[in-house]
């Protein structure tokens, strides 16, 4: 059975990706910043008859959390066929990039850039193939930042 781990999978694009992979016969590790939100997403998928899914708590901005998630998955499987880096934030868009506080940029980079780097450096049980990084740069058909 093929396995997949999806960060930010408790809602939106990540949730739908989990649903689609489950329908294709994958066992999905559903990553969520809070275990509570992950378990709710698992319950929703279970109610749809999709049962090969487990919640994994992961905060991609916290190296300890990334290591813990990697270890937890490592106890369950020797390798992942697919790692989907979907977790991300928009920094409270829409807002003007010229007027946004630098702390907003730091939060976005911590999650959307360094979070991905931590997952790659943790090797997350992949053999270098099957890694997907999701970037959503538009909101409502428009770029997220206005200059």
Automatic annotation (TrEMBL):
Keywords: NADP, Oxidoreductase. PANTHER family: CARBONYL REDUCTASE 1-RELATED, CHAIN DEHYDROGENASE FAMILY PROTEIN, PUTATIVE (AFU_ORTHOLOGUE AFUA_3G15350)-RELATED. The keyword Transferase does not apply. GO terms for molecular function: oxidoreductase activity. This is Short chain dehydrogenase. It holds the Pfam family adh_short. InterPro entries: NAD(P)-bd_dom_sf, SDR_fam. Belongs to the short-chain dehydrogenases/reductases (SDR) family.
